Automatic annotation (TrEMBL), chain A:
GO MF annotation terms: protein heterodimerization activity
Organism: Equus asinus (Donkey)
Protein name: Multifunctional methyltransferase subunit TRM112-like protein
Any single biological process term in GO: rRNA (guanine-N7)-methylation
Origin superkingdom: Eukaryota
TrEMBL record, chain B:
First-tier enzyme category under EC: transferase
Family: Belongs to the class I-like SAM-binding methyltransferase superfamily. TRM11 methyltransferase family.
Record lineage: Eukaryota, Metazoa, Chordata, Craniata, Vertebrata
Domain Ribosomal RNA large subunit methyltransferase K/L-like methyltransferase: 190-320
Protein's UniProt name: tRNA (guanine(10)-N(2))-methyltransferase TRMT11
Species of the source: Equus asinus
Length: 121, 421
Protein backbone atom coordinates (compact mmCIF):
# COMPACT_ATOMS: atom_id res chain seq x y z
CA UNK A 1 0.00 0.00 0.00
CA UNK A 2 1.58 3.25 -1.11
CA UNK A 3 1.94 6.09 1.33
CA UNK A 4 -0.38 8.23 -0.80
CA UNK A 5 -3.04 5.52 -0.60
CA UNK A 6 -2.75 5.32 3.17
CA UNK A 7 -3.45 9.06 3.26
CA UNK A 8 -6.73 8.51 1.42
CA UNK A 9 -8.11 5.73 3.61
CA UNK A 10 -10.44 6.01 6.58
CA UNK A 11 -13.06 3.96 8.35
CA UNK A 12 -16.30 3.50 6.50
CA UNK A 13 -18.59 6.48 6.44
CA UNK A 14 -20.87 6.97 9.39
CA UNK A 15 -18.16 7.31 12.00
CA UNK A 16 -17.68 11.01 11.36
CA UNK A 17 -14.33 12.75 10.88
CA UNK A 18 -12.75 10.59 13.58
CA UNK A 19 -12.53 7.69 11.17
CA UNK A 20 -9.39 9.30 9.76
CA UNK A 21 -6.51 8.76 9.82
CA UNK A 22 -6.26 5.05 10.47
CA UNK A 23 -3.56 3.99 12.86
CA UNK A 24 -0.78 2.24 10.97
CA UNK A 25 1.58 -0.33 12.42
CA UNK A 26 3.93 -1.17 9.61
CA UNK A 27 6.05 -4.31 9.84
CA UNK A 28 7.51 -4.26 6.34
CA UNK A 29 8.13 -1.11 4.34
CA UNK A 30 9.80 -1.01 0.96
CA UNK A 31 11.12 2.03 -0.86
CA UNK A 32 10.69 1.55 -4.59
CA UNK A 33 13.34 3.31 -6.60
CA UNK A 34 10.79 4.91 -8.90
CA UNK A 35 11.70 7.40 -11.57
CA UNK A 36 11.13 10.83 -10.17
CA UNK A 37 8.38 12.60 -12.10
CA UNK A 38 8.07 16.11 -10.61
CA UNK A 39 4.77 16.86 -12.37
CA UNK A 40 3.02 13.80 -10.99
CA UNK A 41 4.25 14.54 -7.46
CA UNK A 42 3.15 18.18 -7.78
CA UNK A 43 -0.25 16.99 -8.91
CA UNK A 44 -0.65 14.76 -5.83
CA UNK A 45 0.35 17.33 -3.23
CA UNK A 46 -2.95 19.31 -3.16
CA UNK A 47 -4.76 16.00 -2.53
CA UNK A 48 -2.74 15.15 0.58
CA UNK A 49 -4.15 15.54 4.11
CA UNK A 50 -1.06 17.12 5.56
CA UNK A 51 -1.39 16.52 9.34
CA UNK A 52 -2.00 12.80 8.86
CA UNK A 53 0.84 12.68 6.36
CA UNK A 54 3.32 14.25 8.80
CA UNK A 55 2.23 11.78 11.47
CA UNK A 56 2.87 8.75 9.32
CA UNK A 57 6.24 10.02 8.07
CA UNK A 58 7.23 10.28 11.73
CA UNK A 59 5.87 6.84 12.58
CA UNK A 60 7.80 5.29 9.71
CA UNK A 61 10.93 7.34 10.43
CA UNK A 62 10.98 8.87 6.99
CA UNK A 63 12.49 12.21 6.04
CA UNK A 64 11.52 15.38 7.82
CA UNK A 65 8.93 17.57 6.16
CA UNK A 66 7.67 21.13 6.68
CA UNK A 67 4.42 21.84 8.53
CA UNK A 68 2.50 22.30 5.31
CA UNK A 69 2.94 22.28 1.55
CA UNK A 70 5.23 25.05 0.40
CA UNK A 71 3.68 27.89 -1.53
CA UNK A 72 4.75 27.50 -5.14
CA UNK A 73 5.66 23.86 -4.53
CA UNK A 74 5.15 23.04 -8.22
CA UNK A 75 8.48 24.68 -9.00
CA UNK A 76 10.43 23.67 -5.90
CA UNK A 77 12.37 20.63 -7.04
CA UNK A 78 13.95 19.91 -3.66
CA UNK A 79 10.57 19.83 -1.99
CA UNK A 80 9.08 17.71 -4.76
CA UNK A 81 11.92 15.21 -4.43
CA UNK A 82 11.13 14.87 -0.72
CA UNK A 83 7.44 14.40 -1.48
CA UNK A 84 8.33 11.65 -3.93
CA UNK A 85 7.97 9.33 -0.91
CA UNK A 86 4.23 9.45 -1.59
CA UNK A 87 4.83 7.20 -4.57
CA UNK A 88 8.02 5.42 -3.56
CA UNK A 89 7.05 4.22 -0.11
CA UNK A 90 5.18 0.94 -0.15
CA UNK A 91 3.90 -0.56 3.09
CA UNK A 92 4.09 -4.25 2.26
CA UNK A 93 2.97 -5.59 5.60
CA UNK A 94 1.22 -3.95 8.47
CA UNK A 95 -1.91 -3.49 10.47
CA UNK A 96 -4.44 -0.75 10.03
CA UNK A 97 -6.46 0.02 13.10
CA UNK A 98 -9.12 2.40 14.19
CA UNK A 99 -7.77 5.81 15.10
CA UNK A 100 -6.62 6.12 18.70
CA UNK A 101 -9.08 7.80 20.98
CA UNK A 102 -7.63 10.85 22.62
CA UNK A 103 -9.27 12.82 25.38
CA UNK A 104 -9.68 16.45 24.70
CA UNK A 105 -12.07 18.05 27.17
CA UNK A 106 -13.18 20.72 24.79
CA UNK A 107 -14.25 18.00 22.37
CA UNK A 108 -15.92 15.84 25.03
CA UNK A 109 -19.24 15.65 23.24
CA UNK A 110 -17.76 14.34 20.03
CA UNK A 111 -15.83 11.73 22.02
CA UNK A 112 -19.04 10.50 23.60
CA UNK A 113 -20.60 10.25 20.16
CA UNK A 114 -17.56 8.23 19.07
CA UNK A 115 -18.01 5.82 21.95
CA UNK A 116 -21.57 5.23 20.88
CA UNK A 117 -20.53 4.56 17.32
CA UNK A 118 -17.84 2.06 18.36
CA UNK A 119 -20.05 0.20 20.77
CA UNK A 120 -22.61 -0.56 18.09
CA UNK A 121 -20.08 -1.80 15.54
CA UNK B 1 2.99 24.35 -39.39
CA UNK B 2 0.19 26.25 -41.05
CA UNK B 3 -0.25 29.96 -40.57
CA UNK B 4 -2.54 30.54 -37.60
CA UNK B 5 -5.88 31.72 -38.90
CA UNK B 6 -8.96 32.85 -37.02
CA UNK B 7 -10.10 29.23 -37.35
CA UNK B 8 -8.67 26.78 -39.81
CA UNK B 9 -10.80 24.05 -41.29
CA UNK B 10 -9.86 20.43 -40.95
CA UNK B 11 -11.26 17.21 -42.31
CA UNK B 12 -11.50 14.28 -39.91
CA UNK B 13 -11.71 10.85 -41.48
CA UNK B 14 -13.57 8.75 -38.93
CA UNK B 15 -13.55 4.99 -38.42
CA UNK B 16 -16.92 3.38 -39.02
CA UNK B 17 -17.16 1.71 -35.66
CA UNK B 18 -18.89 2.65 -32.38
CA UNK B 19 -20.72 5.34 -34.32
CA UNK B 20 -22.53 6.97 -31.39
CA UNK B 21 -19.38 7.18 -29.31
CA UNK B 22 -17.39 9.20 -31.82
CA UNK B 23 -18.78 12.68 -31.40
CA UNK B 24 -18.49 12.73 -27.57
CA UNK B 25 -14.93 11.42 -27.89
CA UNK B 26 -13.87 14.17 -30.27
CA UNK B 27 -15.67 16.86 -28.25
CA UNK B 28 -14.09 15.67 -24.99
CA UNK B 29 -10.62 15.61 -26.50
CA UNK B 30 -10.97 19.03 -28.12
CA UNK B 31 -12.02 20.49 -24.80
CA UNK B 32 -9.09 18.71 -23.11
CA UNK B 33 -6.70 20.55 -25.43
CA UNK B 34 -8.28 23.96 -25.13
CA UNK B 35 -10.36 23.77 -28.28
CA UNK B 36 -14.04 23.51 -28.89
CA UNK B 37 -16.13 21.50 -31.28
CA UNK B 38 -17.14 23.90 -34.05
CA UNK B 39 -18.74 22.68 -37.20
CA UNK B 40 -21.30 23.65 -39.82
CA UNK B 41 -22.11 20.09 -40.67
CA UNK B 42 -25.70 19.08 -40.02
CA UNK B 43 -25.28 15.59 -38.67
CA UNK B 44 -22.47 13.18 -38.01
CA UNK B 45 -24.53 10.06 -37.70
CA UNK B 46 -23.07 7.61 -40.16
CA UNK B 47 -20.69 9.73 -42.20
CA UNK B 48 -16.94 9.15 -41.88
CA UNK B 49 -16.18 12.67 -43.15
CA UNK B 50 -16.35 15.44 -40.55
CA UNK B 51 -15.37 19.02 -41.27
CA UNK B 52 -14.36 20.96 -38.17
CA UNK B 53 -12.89 24.34 -37.37
CA UNK B 54 -9.92 24.09 -35.02
CA UNK B 55 -7.91 27.10 -33.74
CA UNK B 56 -4.46 25.62 -34.37
CA UNK B 57 -2.60 22.71 -35.91
CA UNK B 58 -1.14 21.96 -32.49
CA UNK B 59 -4.61 21.23 -31.11
CA UNK B 60 -5.34 19.08 -34.16
CA UNK B 61 -2.16 17.05 -33.58
CA UNK B 62 -2.90 16.66 -29.87
CA UNK B 63 -6.36 15.40 -30.75
CA UNK B 64 -4.88 12.74 -33.01
CA UNK B 65 -2.45 11.60 -30.30
CA UNK B 66 -5.47 10.48 -28.31
CA UNK B 67 -8.40 9.56 -30.54
CA UNK B 68 -9.23 5.95 -31.40
CA UNK B 69 -12.37 6.97 -33.28
CA UNK B 70 -10.66 9.04 -35.98
CA UNK B 71 -8.33 7.51 -38.55
CA UNK B 72 -6.71 10.69 -39.91
CA UNK B 73 -6.92 14.46 -40.00
CA UNK B 74 -6.26 16.74 -42.96
CA UNK B 75 -5.93 20.49 -43.28
CA UNK B 76 -8.84 21.09 -45.63
CA UNK B 77 -7.95 23.09 -48.73
CA UNK B 78 -11.09 22.49 -50.72
CA UNK B 79 -14.21 20.41 -51.04
CA UNK B 80 -17.39 20.11 -53.06
CA UNK B 81 -20.08 17.81 -54.29
CA UNK B 82 -18.30 17.25 -57.57
CA UNK B 83 -14.79 17.56 -58.97
CA UNK B 84 -15.70 20.91 -60.52
CA UNK B 85 -16.90 22.26 -57.20
CA UNK B 86 -13.71 20.98 -55.59
CA UNK B 87 -11.48 22.76 -58.13
CA UNK B 88 -13.28 26.05 -57.73
CA UNK B 89 -13.12 25.66 -53.95
CA UNK B 90 -9.35 25.07 -54.24
CA UNK B 91 -8.97 28.15 -56.39
CA UNK B 92 -10.49 30.26 -53.62
CA UNK B 93 -8.21 28.84 -50.90
CA UNK B 94 -5.64 31.53 -50.02
CA UNK B 95 -2.43 30.88 -51.94
CA UNK B 96 -0.28 32.18 -49.07
CA UNK B 97 -1.57 29.27 -47.00
CA UNK B 98 -0.56 26.76 -49.66
CA UNK B 99 2.85 28.13 -50.54
CA UNK B 100 4.79 27.00 -47.40
CA UNK B 101 4.09 23.38 -48.37
CA UNK B 102 4.59 23.64 -52.10
CA UNK B 103 7.84 25.55 -52.47
CA UNK B 104 10.64 24.29 -54.66
CA UNK B 105 12.80 22.89 -51.85
CA UNK B 106 10.09 20.60 -50.56
CA UNK B 107 9.05 17.10 -51.55
CA UNK B 108 5.49 15.80 -51.70
CA UNK B 109 3.16 13.13 -52.91
CA UNK B 110 -0.56 12.99 -53.63
CA UNK B 111 -2.65 10.06 -52.39
CA UNK B 112 -6.10 9.18 -53.58
CA UNK B 113 -8.63 7.59 -51.20
CA UNK B 114 -11.99 6.45 -52.48
CA UNK B 115 -14.75 5.22 -50.22
CA UNK B 116 -17.13 2.57 -51.43
CA UNK B 117 -15.55 2.42 -54.87
CA UNK B 118 -12.34 1.18 -56.44
CA UNK B 119 -10.60 3.23 -59.12
CA UNK B 120 -8.26 1.94 -61.82
CA UNK B 121 -4.69 3.23 -61.89
CA UNK B 122 -5.63 5.20 -65.00
CA UNK B 123 -8.51 6.90 -63.24
CA UNK B 124 -6.24 7.82 -60.31
CA UNK B 125 -3.60 9.34 -62.58
CA UNK B 126 -6.29 11.37 -64.35
CA UNK B 127 -7.34 12.88 -61.05
CA UNK B 128 -3.80 13.77 -60.03
CA UNK B 129 -3.22 15.40 -63.40
CA UNK B 130 -6.39 17.45 -62.97
CA UNK B 131 -4.82 19.05 -59.89
CA UNK B 132 -1.93 20.51 -61.87
CA UNK B 133 -3.41 23.96 -61.62
CA UNK B 134 -2.29 24.06 -57.99
CA UNK B 135 1.05 25.87 -57.51
CA UNK B 136 3.12 22.73 -56.77
CA UNK B 137 6.79 23.67 -57.10
CA UNK B 138 8.40 20.92 -55.07
CA UNK B 139 9.61 17.51 -56.19
CA UNK B 140 7.51 14.38 -56.09
CA UNK B 141 8.88 11.78 -53.69
CA UNK B 142 6.78 8.67 -53.36
CA UNK B 143 8.89 7.04 -50.62
CA UNK B 144 9.53 9.71 -47.99
CA UNK B 145 7.84 12.96 -48.92
CA UNK B 146 7.86 15.90 -46.54
CA UNK B 147 4.22 16.61 -47.28
CA UNK B 148 1.40 14.30 -48.20
CA UNK B 149 -1.70 15.63 -49.91
CA UNK B 150 -4.86 13.63 -50.12
CA UNK B 151 -7.78 13.60 -52.48
CA UNK B 152 -10.75 11.86 -50.85
CA UNK B 153 -13.85 10.81 -52.77
CA UNK B 154 -17.04 9.77 -50.98
CA UNK B 155 -19.25 7.34 -52.89
CA UNK B 156 -21.73 6.85 -50.10
CA UNK B 157 -22.26 4.09 -47.59
CA UNK B 158 -24.27 1.54 -49.59
CA UNK B 159 -22.05 -1.09 -51.19
CA UNK B 160 -25.04 -2.26 -53.24
CA UNK B 161 -25.61 1.12 -54.79
CA UNK B 162 -22.38 2.72 -55.92
CA UNK B 163 -22.94 6.00 -57.78
CA UNK B 164 -21.15 6.95 -61.00
CA UNK B 165 -19.98 10.21 -59.45
CA UNK B 166 -18.98 10.86 -55.85
CA UNK B 167 -21.33 12.56 -53.39
CA UNK B 168 -18.48 14.58 -51.95
CA UNK B 169 -14.88 15.26 -52.82
CA UNK B 170 -12.21 16.67 -50.50
CA UNK B 171 -8.62 17.78 -50.88
CA UNK B 172 -6.22 18.59 -48.09
CA UNK B 173 -2.80 18.28 -46.50
CA UNK B 174 -2.42 15.19 -44.31
CA UNK B 175 -1.50 16.16 -40.74
CA UNK B 176 -1.60 13.01 -38.59
CA UNK B 177 -3.22 9.65 -38.00
CA UNK B 178 -5.17 8.69 -34.88
CA UNK B 179 -4.42 5.95 -32.36
CA UNK B 180 -6.38 3.10 -33.83
CA UNK B 181 -3.30 0.86 -33.74
CA UNK B 182 -3.71 0.81 -29.94
CA UNK B 183 -6.76 -1.36 -30.44
CA UNK B 184 -4.56 -4.10 -31.86
CA UNK B 185 -1.54 -3.62 -29.60
CA UNK B 186 -3.68 -3.68 -26.44
CA UNK B 187 -6.03 -6.38 -27.67
CA UNK B 188 -7.36 -8.58 -24.87
CA UNK B 189 -6.45 -11.60 -26.97
CA UNK B 190 -2.83 -10.91 -26.12
CA UNK B 191 -3.33 -9.79 -22.55
CA UNK B 192 -1.82 -11.89 -19.75
CA UNK B 193 -4.83 -11.89 -17.45
CA UNK B 194 -8.40 -11.49 -18.54
CA UNK B 195 -11.75 -11.90 -16.89
CA UNK B 196 -15.08 -13.02 -18.28
CA UNK B 197 -16.04 -9.43 -18.86
CA UNK B 198 -12.78 -7.72 -19.85
CA UNK B 199 -13.52 -4.60 -21.84
CA UNK B 200 -12.73 -4.48 -25.54
CA UNK B 201 -9.55 -2.40 -25.99
CA UNK B 202 -11.15 0.15 -28.32
CA UNK B 203 -13.96 0.87 -25.90
CA UNK B 204 -11.58 1.16 -22.96
CA UNK B 205 -9.65 3.89 -24.77
CA UNK B 206 -12.89 5.59 -25.76
CA UNK B 207 -13.89 5.59 -22.09
CA UNK B 208 -10.59 7.16 -21.04
CA UNK B 209 -11.11 9.83 -23.71
CA UNK B 210 -14.70 10.51 -22.65
CA UNK B 211 -13.23 10.87 -19.16
CA UNK B 212 -10.74 13.51 -20.36
CA UNK B 213 -7.96 11.58 -18.64
CA UNK B 214 -4.64 13.38 -18.79
CA UNK B 215 -1.07 12.85 -17.69
CA UNK B 216 -0.59 12.67 -13.91
CA UNK B 217 -4.31 12.40 -13.20
CA UNK B 218 -5.44 10.05 -10.42
CA UNK B 219 -8.00 7.71 -11.97
CA UNK B 220 -10.15 5.25 -10.06
CA UNK B 221 -12.15 2.19 -11.09
CA UNK B 222 -14.35 0.96 -8.25
CA UNK B 223 -15.19 -2.31 -10.06
CA UNK B 224 -11.75 -2.98 -11.41
CA UNK B 225 -11.85 -6.70 -12.37
CA UNK B 226 -8.60 -7.38 -14.27
CA UNK B 227 -7.89 -3.69 -14.76
CA UNK B 228 -8.61 -3.22 -18.47
CA UNK B 229 -9.98 0.27 -17.98
CA UNK B 230 -6.99 1.23 -15.84
CA UNK B 231 -4.64 0.15 -18.63
CA UNK B 232 -6.15 2.70 -21.01
CA UNK B 233 -5.80 5.52 -18.46
CA UNK B 234 -2.25 4.46 -17.58
CA UNK B 235 -1.36 4.51 -21.26
CA UNK B 236 -2.37 8.18 -21.29
CA UNK B 237 -0.11 8.85 -18.29
CA UNK B 238 -2.57 8.67 -15.40
CA UNK B 239 -1.86 7.01 -12.06
CA UNK B 240 -4.45 4.39 -11.27
CA UNK B 241 -6.44 2.92 -8.40
CA UNK B 242 -8.92 0.08 -8.33
CA UNK B 243 -11.16 -1.70 -5.90
CA UNK B 244 -12.44 -5.14 -6.53
CA UNK B 245 -15.49 -6.92 -5.26
CA UNK B 246 -13.91 -10.25 -6.06
CA UNK B 247 -16.41 -12.85 -5.02
CA UNK B 248 -13.71 -15.49 -4.94
CA UNK B 249 -11.54 -13.68 -2.46
CA UNK B 250 -13.83 -14.62 0.42
CA UNK B 251 -12.92 -18.28 -0.10
CA UNK B 252 -9.29 -17.54 -0.88
CA UNK B 253 -9.96 -19.07 -4.26
CA UNK B 254 -9.59 -17.62 -7.67
CA UNK B 255 -10.51 -18.89 -11.05
CA UNK B 256 -8.46 -17.98 -14.07
CA UNK B 257 -10.34 -17.14 -17.24
CA UNK B 258 -7.72 -18.95 -19.29
CA UNK B 259 -6.87 -22.61 -18.94
CA UNK B 260 -3.70 -23.56 -17.05
CA UNK B 261 -3.29 -20.09 -15.67
CA UNK B 262 -2.51 -19.45 -12.06
CA UNK B 263 -4.74 -16.99 -10.31
CA UNK B 264 -2.69 -14.82 -8.01
CA UNK B 265 -5.24 -12.42 -6.67
CA UNK B 266 -6.74 -9.31 -8.23
CA UNK B 267 -3.95 -6.91 -7.36
CA UNK B 268 -1.16 -9.09 -8.68
CA UNK B 269 -3.06 -9.75 -11.91
CA UNK B 270 -3.67 -6.08 -12.56
CA UNK B 271 -0.04 -5.27 -11.84
CA UNK B 272 1.01 -8.00 -14.26
CA UNK B 273 -1.27 -6.61 -16.95
CA UNK B 274 0.19 -3.12 -16.53
CA UNK B 275 3.69 -4.57 -16.52
CA UNK B 276 3.00 -6.29 -19.82
CA UNK B 277 2.69 -2.86 -21.45
CA UNK B 278 5.46 -1.16 -19.51
CA UNK B 279 2.92 0.78 -17.45
CA UNK B 280 3.64 -0.62 -13.98
CA UNK B 281 4.89 2.71 -12.67
CA UNK B 282 1.34 4.05 -12.99
CA UNK B 283 -0.03 1.38 -10.64
CA UNK B 284 -0.89 2.91 -7.28
CA UNK B 285 -2.95 0.29 -5.48
CA UNK B 286 -5.81 -2.15 -5.84
CA UNK B 287 -7.85 -2.74 -2.73
CA UNK B 288 -10.17 -5.60 -2.13
CA UNK B 289 -13.44 -4.06 -1.07
CA UNK B 290 -15.11 -5.81 1.81
CA UNK B 291 -17.30 -4.63 4.66
CA UNK B 292 -14.48 -4.88 7.18
CA UNK B 293 -11.87 -3.13 5.08
CA UNK B 294 -11.20 0.59 5.14
CA UNK B 295 -12.82 2.99 2.78
CA UNK B 296 -12.03 6.35 1.18
CA UNK B 297 -11.90 9.47 3.31
CA UNK B 298 -13.78 12.69 2.71
CA UNK B 299 -12.15 14.95 0.17
CA UNK B 300 -11.80 15.53 -3.55
CA UNK B 301 -8.85 13.66 -5.01
CA UNK B 302 -9.94 11.64 -8.04
CA UNK B 303 -9.55 13.33 -11.40
CA UNK B 304 -11.70 10.70 -13.09
CA UNK B 305 -13.75 7.65 -12.16
CA UNK B 306 -14.04 5.20 -15.05
CA UNK B 307 -15.83 1.94 -14.54
CA UNK B 308 -17.94 -0.95 -15.79
CA UNK B 309 -20.14 -1.85 -12.82
CA UNK B 310 -21.60 -5.31 -12.42
CA UNK B 311 -25.11 -5.36 -13.73
CA UNK B 312 -27.86 -7.93 -13.65
CA UNK B 313 -29.83 -8.00 -16.83
CA UNK B 314 -31.11 -11.53 -16.85
CA UNK B 315 -32.54 -13.23 -19.86
CA UNK B 316 -35.74 -15.11 -19.05
CA UNK B 317 -34.22 -18.29 -20.46
CA UNK B 318 -30.78 -19.34 -19.28
CA UNK B 319 -28.13 -20.06 -21.87
CA UNK B 320 -27.15 -23.73 -21.83
CA UNK B 321 -23.73 -24.64 -20.60
CA UNK B 322 -23.02 -21.34 -19.01
CA UNK B 323 -23.77 -22.56 -15.52
CA UNK B 324 -21.21 -25.38 -15.41
CA UNK B 325 -18.32 -23.26 -14.28
CA UNK B 326 -19.95 -21.65 -11.28
CA UNK B 327 -18.10 -22.25 -8.02
CA UNK B 328 -20.14 -24.04 -5.41
CA UNK B 329 -22.25 -21.82 -3.24
CA UNK B 330 -22.05 -18.86 -5.59
CA UNK B 331 -24.41 -18.23 -8.43
CA UNK B 332 -23.17 -16.09 -11.23
CA UNK B 333 -24.48 -15.13 -14.64
CA UNK B 334 -21.54 -14.80 -16.99
CA UNK B 335 -23.54 -12.77 -19.44
CA UNK B 336 -24.49 -10.27 -16.79
CA UNK B 337 -21.49 -10.66 -14.45
CA UNK B 338 -23.10 -10.16 -11.09
CA UNK B 339 -23.29 -12.61 -8.21
CA UNK B 340 -26.91 -13.24 -7.46
CA UNK B 341 -26.07 -13.36 -3.78
CA UNK B 342 -25.30 -9.64 -3.95
CA UNK B 343 -28.29 -8.09 -2.26
CA UNK B 344 -27.25 -4.71 -3.63
CA UNK B 345 -30.26 -3.51 -5.58
CA UNK B 346 -29.31 -2.31 -9.03
CA UNK B 347 -30.51 1.26 -8.74
CA UNK B 348 -28.94 1.64 -5.27
CA UNK B 349 -25.59 0.81 -6.76
CA UNK B 350 -25.79 3.56 -9.37
CA UNK B 351 -27.09 6.00 -6.79
CA UNK B 352 -24.09 5.21 -4.58
CA UNK B 353 -21.72 5.47 -7.53
CA UNK B 354 -22.98 8.92 -8.49
CA UNK B 355 -22.85 10.07 -4.89
CA UNK B 356 -19.35 8.74 -4.44
CA UNK B 357 -18.28 10.50 -7.66
CA UNK B 358 -19.90 13.77 -6.55
CA UNK B 359 -17.99 13.57 -3.25
CA UNK B 360 -14.54 12.48 -4.37
CA UNK B 361 -14.11 13.93 -7.88
CA UNK B 362 -12.25 17.20 -8.26
CA UNK B 363 -14.34 19.99 -9.76
CA UNK B 364 -14.41 19.40 -13.52
CA UNK B 365 -13.60 15.72 -13.02
CA UNK B 366 -15.55 13.10 -14.92
CA UNK B 367 -17.46 9.93 -14.15
CA UNK B 368 -17.73 7.45 -17.03
CA UNK B 369 -19.74 4.26 -16.55
CA UNK B 370 -21.92 1.72 -18.33
CA UNK B 371 -25.64 1.61 -17.59
CA UNK B 372 -27.49 -1.57 -18.54
CA UNK B 373 -30.79 -1.07 -20.32
CA UNK B 374 -33.80 -3.19 -21.16
CA UNK B 375 -34.40 -1.51 -24.51
CA UNK B 376 -38.21 -1.80 -24.88
CA UNK B 377 -38.73 0.07 -21.61
CA UNK B 378 -35.90 2.59 -21.85
CA UNK B 379 -36.62 6.28 -21.43
CA UNK B 380 -34.08 9.04 -20.90
CA UNK B 381 -35.36 9.71 -17.39
CA UNK B 382 -33.97 6.36 -16.31
CA UNK B 383 -30.45 7.71 -16.52
CA UNK B 384 -29.44 8.46 -12.90
CA UNK B 385 -28.85 12.09 -12.06
CA UNK B 386 -27.19 14.07 -9.29
CA UNK B 387 -27.30 17.81 -8.54
CA UNK B 388 -23.49 18.06 -8.63
CA UNK B 389 -23.01 16.15 -11.86
CA UNK B 390 -23.85 17.34 -15.37
CA UNK B 391 -24.71 14.79 -18.05
CA UNK B 392 -22.22 15.11 -20.91
CA UNK B 393 -23.10 12.15 -23.12
CA UNK B 394 -25.16 8.99 -23.32
CA UNK B 395 -24.09 6.46 -26.01
CA UNK B 396 -25.84 3.21 -26.72
CA UNK B 397 -24.22 -0.11 -27.54
CA UNK B 398 -26.64 -2.86 -28.46
CA UNK B 399 -25.99 -6.18 -26.75
CA UNK B 400 -28.95 -8.26 -27.91
CA UNK B 401 -32.37 -7.78 -29.43
CA UNK B 402 -33.79 -6.25 -26.27
CA UNK B 403 -30.82 -5.34 -24.14
CA UNK B 404 -28.18 -2.71 -24.55
CA UNK B 405 -25.83 -0.74 -22.40
CA UNK B 406 -25.25 2.96 -22.40
CA UNK B 407 -21.95 4.69 -21.77
CA UNK B 408 -22.81 7.59 -19.51
CA UNK B 409 -20.36 10.45 -19.05
CA UNK B 410 -20.92 13.04 -16.34
CA UNK B 411 -18.87 15.99 -15.18
CA UNK B 412 -18.72 17.41 -11.67
CA UNK B 413 -19.86 21.01 -11.88
CA UNK B 414 -20.78 21.78 -8.29
CA UNK B 415 -19.10 21.25 -4.91
CA UNK B 416 -20.58 18.45 -2.86
CA UNK B 417 -22.51 19.26 0.31
CA UNK B 418 -23.66 16.34 2.46
CA UNK B 419 -27.44 16.88 2.31
CA UNK B 420 -27.46 16.92 -1.56
CA UNK B 421 -29.44 13.92 -2.81
Amino acid sequence: MKLFTYNLLSLRVGVGPHGFPLHLQATKVHINPEDFNPDSVAHMIPKVEWVAFLEVTNTLHLIKLPKGPIHGHERDEKFLRKMHILQETDVLEGILQRPRLSFNWSKLISVIQMHCAFSTS
Amino acid sequence: MALPGPLNRYLLLMAQEHLEFRLPEIKSLLSLFGGQFISNQGTYGKSPFWILSIPSEEIARNLMKRTVCAKSIFELWGHGRSSEELYSSLRSYPVEKMVPFLHSDSTYKIKIHTFNKTLTQEEKVKRIDALEFLPFEGKVNLKKPQHIFSLLEDYGLDPNCIPENPHNVYFGRWIADGQRELIESYSIKKRHFIGNTSMDAGLSFIMANHGKVKENDIVFDPFVGTGGLLIASAHFGAYVYGTDIDYNTVHGLGKASRKNQKWRGPDENIRANLRQYGLEKYYLDVLVSDASKPSWRKGTYFDAIITDPPYGIRESTRRTGSQKEIPKGMEKCPESHVPVSLSYHLSDMFFDLLNFAAETLVLGGRLVYWLPVYTPEYIEEMVPSHPCLKLISNCEQKLSSHTSRRLITMEKVKKFKAPDR
